[in-house]
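Entry:
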Amino acid sequence: MVLLKRGCMYKQGSGAGFFQRKNWKKRYFVLTQDDLRYFDEEQGVLKGCLDLSECTKESLETLPSDVVNNTPTSWCLAIRTPSRRFIMSFATEADMHGWAFAFLEAFKMNEDSGRNTYVVDGRLRGLVKEQKLRKHGSLSKLKMTPHNHAA
C-alpha cells in the first residue's frame, strides 16, 4: 500500500444516523491508492473508509461554497463512488488543490495498476520506511515506496 497524503479536513456526515443529520466533522485522513481512511484524530480510532478502487478523474468534483449547506470553509470537493457521494471541506484553497492532486494521482494509479508506485506528498518523497497506522483498533504497517520517475 502506498501512502499518498495525510492530514486534517472536514467531512460531511452521510445522514444515515437516527436523526439523518449531515453535520460536519473534523477528521484526520490517510489517502492510499486504494482508499481514504479517516480517524477521529491523528493517532485515533478509525471512523470510516472510502473505497477508491473504482474511482476515475470524473469521480472528483469541485464544489462552489454556496452549493453545500453550512460548510465550515469555502473550499469543498466531492468524490462520487458507486455507493456514495463523499463531501469534504478544506481550511485553504491550497489544501483543497493539494488533496485534489493526490486524489487524481490515486485514481490514475488504480487505472495504471501494475506500473511503478510512488509517493506524492512532497514531505515523504524519496523516503523508504514503514509507517504505523491504526486499523480497526490494531496497528498495521503501511509500507511506503520511493518516488520513481517512470519513463
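Helices lie at 93-111.
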